[in-house]
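Proteins fold reproducibly. Next comes an illustrative record:
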Amino acid sequence: MTATLPQLLADYFAAKNRHDINAMLIPFSPDATVKDEGKTHRGSDAIRSWMEETTRKYRVTVEVAEATANGDAWRIAGIVSGNFPGSPATLHYNFTLADNRIALLEIGA
């Protein structure tokens, strides 16, 4: 079942597709955690660095293909296109929300 994204997740993906780091960071709580490519990034400064590095390296855009929710946990299947082998590929973005902010983002296959 596909759910309608909460505005903060829709805003995150819109900013990601524009490669707008400042706007991408807005939905995250100051002490959020991101797990991607086997690394963990905690807090706004570390998440900003991760966003800058991955945006520069891969220049991805994401088309949300499916979204499901279980309380404050969201699993989003995205068709990701960019500068990486195997593009486009489907990746899963697992978000945990708290206080209307992103507290945790885990990205994987």
Q: What stands out?
A: The domain at 7-108 is CATH 3.10.450.50 (Nuclear Transport Factor 2; Chain: A,). The chain is about 30% helix and 45% strand. The chain has one domain: 7-108.
